[in-house]
Amino acid sequence: MTVQSRQAIGRAVRRAKRWLLPVPVEPDWRKILQFDRARWSGMREAARHGPTVLIATSTGGHRALTSVESLLAVALTLRGADVHFLLCDGALPACMQATIRQFRDQSEFVRHGPARSLCDDCFAIGYATYRPLGLPIHRYSRLVTRAERRMADELSGSVPLSSIGDFRLDGLAVGEHALAGALRYFARGDLADEPDAEPVLRRYLRASLLTTYAVRRLLGRFKFDCACFNHGIYVPQGLIGEVARQRGVRVVNWNPAYRKRCFIFSHGDTYHHTLMSEPTSAWENMEWSPELEREVMDYLKSRWQGTRDWIWFHEKPEEDLATIARESGIDFSKPCIGMLTNVMWDAQLHYPANAFPNMLEWVLQTIRYFEKRPDLQLIIRVHPAEIRGTIPSRQPIMGEISKVFPKLPENVFVIPPERPVSTYAVMLQCDSVIIYGTKTGVELTSFGIPVIVAGEAWIRNKGVTMDAQTAEEYFRLLDRLPLCQKMDEATARRARMYAYHFFFRRMIPLSMMQPVSGVPPYRLQVSSLDDMMPGRDLGLDVICRGVLEGSAFIYPAESRAGVAGE
User: Which candidate, 89, 74, 112, places its Cα nearest to that of 19?
Assistant: First the structure.
């Protein structure tokens, strides 16, 4: 027996013992069901012949996911669905649980991936959370054959490095999600300056291939009506979606939303894609009223301090324009054009409507343009999430700008991510604002600020912004600046209608998700099965109907405007 074999057996024994030990989990379904055990068993048995739903969590140690997806599993079972789980048990050589900041010695991840430091606890937490429910739990390691592991090894090692991002397996965009996963691991928008870029990217490609093989086999064994899981991108979630769509299995993806207690669900693909392609008929014909307008504008103003959100970046942002002008050198009496960046590594997917190949190219070409427009001031607000997000960026946009512009043009000003300046206070002083992929376009248009879209922002295609499909079209739009006027009232009202739809209808509230400090920013708070039965929580009903029937994930907020707690 080789040393490597003995080490592998030792790890397997330790892992098996770890799985059998009690693991502190949240939510604790054993405790929640202690007085409902017989009732739950009966409901579970009655649902065995109902519509089949795969809750494909995969990364069980991601506590922000298991609380929501275990809730969905219980709620769907109570509504007659036959629910299964999918968990990774250490079979993948890379995944979205791993980030570069978790490894002091990068050679450990290059050689072993997450196996030695993350996998045991990750599976143990997910397994301990789901096991008390008594629902089927499928494991990646039992879904991939030795021959498939060899194929994954050979393919991941033979695809040319420059071709990995475009690599497809039987029509599936395996390489795109592998690249997105590697960029997320490095927290960068590209891999140009990473010495370990190639082995890490190939590790993510191998994980993508193994995920593809595993999900193919699982969907071949069971006829699932729907696969419901988080994110919809990266590794392994992006590949689960790719295989499910190819096999004709309905896909539902979800993410935490911005408002407290709220979540975004989407059909068919990640919301990064579907929010741009959603038909305007979903919201433009709603009966608009002064009450709804007041409600959405009050909420948008609250976002300046984040008092009603569980995602915000500055506790007390500076809103005094005189102070901002003095510290930044901006002259607000002259025409100003705002520019809002987003985090370079985040959701690096292919968007055919983008006017530029990536955000950095957009930023650099825009600065070059304004260098020749001394009549205008360009104010670049770097997204605070670069340093205050869950995964801080290791490729700051200011560093990339300084490589090309060691000295910025005199009419270009950058507000760095660490500055506690109110983005809204600055942008509302601008003649217009240009964006790439930020949701802030939804908010600014509601205040009547004209917005030019060059990338995958969700406000695109809503009939309220100037959307550039090509670089040429983008620069033609810039040639029209300054506009010297706000949006007309009809267009601004349309923008506010979409903002209401986006923040109050697409963001579905779940009353049992209690906001807490820390990560994740919520905790499931239920005491019995009664809390999750049909009719008890409208948001949960909307979500379950969407999963089971394919109905729209739209919360009827307009019919409940002013209801306490919503």
Answer: 89
d(CA 57, CA 72): 11
Every domain of the chain and the residues it spans: 15-256+535-549, 280-505
Q: Which candidate, 237, 189, 229, 11, places its Cα nearest to that of 113?
A: 11
DSSP 114-177: TIIIIIHHHHHHHHHHHGGGT--EEEGGGS--HHHHHHHHHHHHHS-GGGGGG--BTTB-HHHH
pLDDT tens-place string over residues 409-464: 999 999 999 898 999 999 999 999 999 988 899 999 999 999 999 998 889 999 99
Q: Cis link prior to 374 (omega < 30° from 0)?
A: no
Residue of 394, 395, 544, 489 whose CA lies nearest to 77: 544
How many other CB atoms are found less than 10 A from the CB of residue 332?
16
Residue carrying the six token digits 């040429």: 472
Q: Is the entire prediction scored with pTM above 0.85?
A: yes
Rounded-to-integer distance, Cα 263 and Cα 227, Å: 17
- Token couple for 393: 């960026």
| Contact between 125 and 60 (Cβ < 8 Å) | yes
At residue 488, the pLDDT reads: 97
Residue written as token pair 């999750």:
532
pLDDT tens for each residue of 372-393: 999 999 999 999 888 877 788 8
Superfamily designation of domain 280-505: Glycogen Phosphorylase B; (3.40.50.2000)
Please give the distance of CA 527 from its chain centroid, rounded to a whole number. Answer: 29
Containing H/E element for 378? strand 377-381
Domains 15-256+535-549 and 280-505 share a fold: yes
**Class (C level, CATH) for 15-256+535-549:** alpha beta
What is the chain's alpha carbon radius of gyration, rounded to the nearest angstrom? 24
